[in-house]
Amino acid sequence: MEFKIGNSGLVKVLYFFEGNDILGVSKELKEYVNENKLFNGKRGEIFSNLGPNTENIILLGLGKESEVSLENIRRAFLSLGKCLKANKVKSCNIEIKNFDGLCYKLTAEAIIEGIINVTYNFDNFLKDKKEAYDCEVFFEVLENKLDHVEDGIKEINALMEAVFMCRDLVNRPANDIYPETLANFAKEELEKVGVEVEVLEKKQIESLKMEAFLSVARGSDLPPKFIIMKHLPNKDEKPIVLVGKGLTYDSGGYAIKPATGMVDMKTDMGGSAAVISTMYAVGKMNVQRNVIALVASCENMINGSAYRNGDIISSMKGSTIEVINTDAEGRLTLADALYYGASKLNPECIVDVATLTGACIYALGSRVIGAVSNNDEVYAKIQESADFMGEYLWRFPVFEEHRESVKGKVADLLNSTGPGSGGAITAGIFLEHFVENTPWVHLDIAGPSYSSSAWGTNPEGASGTPVKTLYNFVKKYNKK
């Protein structure tokens, strides 16, 4: 799909708020629509008059004018995209309008994002590929806004390319994406956009004494990889460090999951997919902010060498951990990755992203990212970015009883706490132990990362959450 500035296009798209008078169509068509109550302007409502001997018009509803927002525009124009695709429209024309309280450029980006989502499909493993949909979308733009919209087209295309990349990575099965192929993918794709990628092998990981990470990896025949991705355009600037959970498959280990619980565990690397894809967008847009992303990637499997429930293991930090549950493995890999970032990279702040706990889904549902943080200012920046990009985020409260529950008696820490302990919160507190007082936010994306049905502007399967939030956070980050 190609977005251009101009007044061409075979089909004219007109959009209205709920209850507004329909303008820009013939008197006859307007009377027909009104008399038959075919269009009222509700968000996402469509009336189309297409084909030979028609006006080639699509009417699109934006909903109530008092509720206009970038997210409502995204969702309305997703409906338009579906209509264009269903009718195989080859080109269309859309006038970009000024809305009170909304930036003109960002309005254009929201329109593009809504439409472009209909082009995503995951058919990598289908013998008969789905027919790709292509359409030229021409924007009529105010003369003094041409450069702004051109910049917006470039940026949203790069960002949505990254979102689609994240979706593809999460949707791909574990026999296709495993530590080696994930590392190779990061290196091949990110180096194209100027991001430096280094992959540490098992011996190098051992030399760093990443015992928690290595303990999880022991049950797999596939060696672990530690992926370091750097975008450093500014000299002497502390980097933002992004850390993504990289479990390319999670059987649960000796706390083995039931078959129904394992079938989607290819998605347990959603955090790593998000940070890799964010780095792609950051590199492609050459965002002027130092960013380093880290992924400790492995599988959680079972063999004679696998770690066990009840084992006591060490970590790169030197803290000991009693393994209460081998299915609470993600926090062990993240612990060493977080400590590496905190102790070796002198970060401005750290954000980790992980499909970490089912408890987060129980607490917030399957559409909301749960957060734990040690810094109000950095968390506020993440929250602002999520709100701006239309991704849902909620911060969990932390109390002293939560902190006490992760402390061990025969080891420094427990990797899992009992029922009723606030598992999404205590998992975050466990991770906090390894950030060395660096400003930090933990994002649990267990719910919105992957879904069995479409929602919002997201398709069935992987959503690409939270690439948009992370990109906007990095782009707009300042120390004030």
Q: Explain this structure to me?
A:
The protein is an alpha/beta fold. It is built from 15 helices and 19 strands. It has helices at 27-35, 70-86, 104-116, 146-171, 179-191, 202-207, 211-217, 259-262, 270-284, 330-344, 358-364, 376-389, 400-405, 423-432, 467-476; strands at 2-5, 11-16, 46-49, 57-61, 91-95, 136-140, 196-200, 225-231, 240-250, 291-300, 312-313, 321-322, 349-354, 369-373, 393-395, 413-414, 440-444, 450-451, 461-462. The strands form four sheets. Strands 7-8-10-9-13-17-14-15 form an eight-stranded mixed beta sheet, with helices on both faces. Strands 1-6-5-2-4-3 form a six-stranded mixed beta sheet, covered by helices on one side. A three-stranded mixed beta sheet has the order 11-12-16. The chain is elongated, with a radius of gyration of 24 Å. The protein starts with a strand and ends with a helix.
Summary?
By secondary structure, the protein is α/β, with parallel strands linked by helices. Helix content is 36%, strand content 19%.
Number of strands: 19
Q: Which whole number gives the mean pLDDT?
A: 97
Shape: elongated
- Low-pLDDT residue spans: none
Question: What percent of residues adopt helix (DSSP H or I)?
Answer: 25-40%
Summarize the main sheet: 8 strands, mixed
The percentage of residues in β strands lies in 15-25%
Radius of gyration: 24 Å
Structural class, from secondary structure content?
Answer: alpha/beta
Q: Could you give the distance between the termini? A: 39 Å
Question: Strand order across the biggest sheet?
Answer: 7-8-10-9-13-17-14-15
Number of helical segments with 4 or more residues: 15
